[in-house]
Amino acid sequence: MPVTLQLPSPYALFLGDGDQLAVKTATGIAHWRPERCLAQVKLPNCSADLGLPTLSPKAAYEAGARLLIVGAAEFGGRISPAWIPMLQEALAAGLDLAAGLHERLADVPALRESAAKLHRQLFDVRQPLKGQSVIATGEKRSGMRLLTVGTDCAIGKMFTSLSIEAELKRRGVPATFRASGQTGILISGSGVSVDAVVSDFVSGAAELLSPANQAGHWDLIEGQGSLHHPAYAAVTSSVSAGSWSAASSAAWSSASSSTTRSTPRRPAFSSASRSGSSWGVSASPSGYVARYGGEAR
């Protein structure tokens, strides 16, 4: 996919020195892409555990890992000073580094200098790449697209997209999850972090994210923002404009009912996935489905 981030694999997941709640990103990667995850790397006082082999950076590289993903989060999205020696150890062992935190790996002098000296790569997935600042054309593209939208942020749009992708693949339908946020990129290994793209170019970035494909192929596009939130509705609108989806999938709060509609072109399937207090809902074979608390109406 041109001008979208591509991450090397397999992965080792860095859990830092926190508890299970602090490693949400690593948990998502291990859950959705277990075939790419070879090991977990953590500091001695870390209580989090993903059920992966706990290895040193050197042992993880020798086991086949090529990228150490920072799967933990400190308050404010910072890179903890306590992590830096082990991250430097990973670079020395031969691993590249990736993170989706607000503080960039490349802005930490010790990591930037070590990476340059050792010819390693630092992937800050929350940053836009050169070539992503493009104006949307609105040109029709072959292939099928489904965009997840929601009534709020952090409500299950990514989880829903990944769940539908998994179900389509189980049924033999060609499908690809298209990540538009930092955690989704770390899960999929590619994508565009649209919250790092200038607003004028978000629709264009969405077009880059889901290019023309085979007629029967489905792109499951991870939605961003919120339909109703005054601070984030513009993001949803821009991603929608660039996605040109043939169907939509809505993630609503458990206190709301929902209805989604698609065009008749998509295959007959219906899927819902639970994520916290939310439900992700896709279109039914007849074109409409409404769900409340997981019960179809």
Report on this model:
By secondary structure, the chain is α/β, with parallel strands linked by helices. It has two domains: 5-124, Rossmann fold; 144-296, P-loop containing nucleotide triphosphate hydrolases (Rossmann fold, 3-Layer(aba) Sandwich), CATH 3.40.50. Helices cover 25% and strands 23% of the residues. It has eight helices and 16 strands. It has helices spanning 24-32, 57-62, 84-93, 109-118, 157-170, 182-188, 202-209, 233-243; strands at residues 5-6, 11-16, 37-42, 67-70, 96-99, 122-124, 144-150, 175-178, 190-191, 218-221, 247-253, 258-261, 272-275, 278-281, 288-292, 295-296. The strands form four sheets. It has a six-stranded mixed beta sheet, with helices on both faces. It has a five-stranded parallel beta sheet with strand order 3-2-4-5-6, sandwiched between helices. A three-stranded antiparallel beta sheet has the order 12-15-16, with no helix packed on it. Helix 1 runs parallel beside helix 6 (182-188), helix 3 runs parallel beside helix 4 (109-118) and helix 7 (202-209) crosses helix 8 (233-243). The chain is globular, with a radius of gyration of 19 Å. The model is unreliable at 254-297 (pLDDT under 50).
Provide the descriptors you would attach to this structure in a database record:
globular, 6-stranded mixed sheet, 8 helices, Rossmann fold, 297 residues, alpha/beta, 5-stranded parallel sheet, 23% strand, disordered C terminus, 25% helix, 2 domains, 16 strands
Quick overview:
By secondary structure, the chain is of the alpha/beta class. It folds into 2 domains: 5-124, NAD(P)-binding Rossmann-like Domain (Rossmann fold), CATH 3.40.50; 144-296, Rossmann fold, CATH 3.40.50. The chain has helices at 24-32, 57-62, 84-93, 109-118, 157-170, 182-188, 202-209, 233-243, and strands at residues 5-6, 11-16, 37-42, 67-70, 96-99, 122-124, 144-150, 175-178, 190-191, 218-221, 247-253, 258-261, 272-275, 278-281, 288-292, 295-296.
